[in-house]
Amino acid sequence: MQFKKITVVGAGYVGLANVLLLAQNNTVCLLEIDEEKVRLIQQGKSPVSDEDIDFFLARDDLSLTVTANCDDAYRDADLVIIATPTNYDTETNRFDTRSVEVVAQYVSEHYPEALIVIKSTIPVGYTRELRLKLGCDNILFSPEFLREGKALHDNLYPSRIIVGEHSQRAQAVAELFQQGAINRDVPILLTGASEAEAIKLFANTYLAMRVAFFNELDSYAEVHGLSTRDIIQGVGMDSRIGTHYNNPSFGYGGYCLPKDTKQLLANYDKVPNTLIRAIVDANTTRKDFIADSIIQKNPRTVGVYRLLMKAGSDNFRASSIQGVMKRIKAKGIKVVVYEPVLKDTHFFHSPVVTDLTEFKSCSDVIIANRMADELADVVGKIYTRDLFGDDL
């Protein structure tokens, strides 16, 4: 099965990573309603922070066009990949999938021969529900396993490729993603649609559980005056556990883990569970513990060093340090923020200090989810739980 034209909808991390992966060997059109993003991409500039995306956009050997016009994007496309955002709605206890549905409905009505592949994260059972609602069988789900700031890298060197249908067309889609990878020796798994959706949510919830486990280990060690580093190193020597994803933090955050764990918990509404609920609750407990530890130092001004979740990313949505920041402010303690990517003068009513020297000077305690070399001269002011100097 050959795809003559592929249209990808959405120019976030997932959309751009897929566009650039596929444009190496296929004719690809990127549809993005934000005209500023379209302008940037047409100039070879990335609207997200990712070194590999920057590098690929500068190449002149990709078959890629970018547009904000729906008909231009969908015309003659035989494969449409949906990579629009699906934020978690706390009122409905469900991902907000309206953007996915809008695209799927439009394509199924106006271009019914096109195969639709959803890359956005969705609840378990959503693909089946959408097929029934739209009366369209041309809808598949293929989960993404990408890190912000490393999105294209993780597509070029994928851990696995999963497509939610047992069919020749699902195999063709899987091989399409495999074709663009540098490491093509990658396992392909075809499953049912709901199983593919569950794989995404359970994988991210397991990662959140691992973060929560080592954070609670760190809380225990700090309360009892023990060496967290020694304990983690000793635990990690067991090959069944390993030494990866074990660096204590202020909690798991970012775009995926908080919303995916909550969505999975919501999918458990009629299923007995203890662990899944505990993973969600543990993140709140950790932020409470971190905030209390900082408050006990009686600072007049707390400096928040970077809102970002990890190096190389430009996203601070749901970053754990924001939860700590809010708890500190609730106690009447002044908070200032150092975040170079912010253009605003205030963040949640706290002043943003753009001069690092000034930031260091005005802060009694500086909280940093991850340590950085530029803080070495004020290490006595730093509160961090970063032991191993790596991102989660």
Outline the structure in words:
- The two termini are 38 Å apart.
- Strand 9 (161-163), helix 8 (168-180) and strand 10 (188-190) form a beta-alpha-beta unit.
- The model has no long low-confidence stretch (mean pLDDT 94).
- The chain is an alpha/beta fold and 392 residues long.
- It has a six-stranded parallel β-sheet with strand order 3-2-1-4-7-8, sandwiched between helices.
- The protein is built from 14 helices and 16 strands.
Which structural traits does this protein have?
392 residues; alpha/beta; four-stranded parallel sheet; 16 strands
Number of helices: 14
The SS-based structural class is alpha/beta
- The number of strands is 16
Whole-number mean pLDDT: 94
Gyration radius (Cα, Å) is 22 Å
Please outline what is shown here:
By secondary structure, the chain is α/β, with parallel strands linked by helices. The chain contains 14 helices and 16 strands.
Q: Topology of this protein?
A:
Blueprint: E1 6-9, H1 13-22, E2 28-31, H2 35-42, H3 51-57, E3 64-67, H4 70-74, E4 79-82, E5 88-89, E6 94-95, H5 98-110, E7 115-118, H6 126-134, E8 139-141, H7 151-156, E9 161-163, H8 168-180, E10 188-190, H9 193-223, H10 228-236, H11 257-267, H12 275-295, E11 301-305, H13 320-329, E12 334-338, E13 346-347, E14 350-351, H14 356-362, E15 365-367, E16 382-383
Parallel strand pairs: 1-2, 1-4, 2-3, 4-7, 7-8, 9-10, 11-12, 11-15, 15-16
Antiparallel strand pairs: 5-6, 13-14
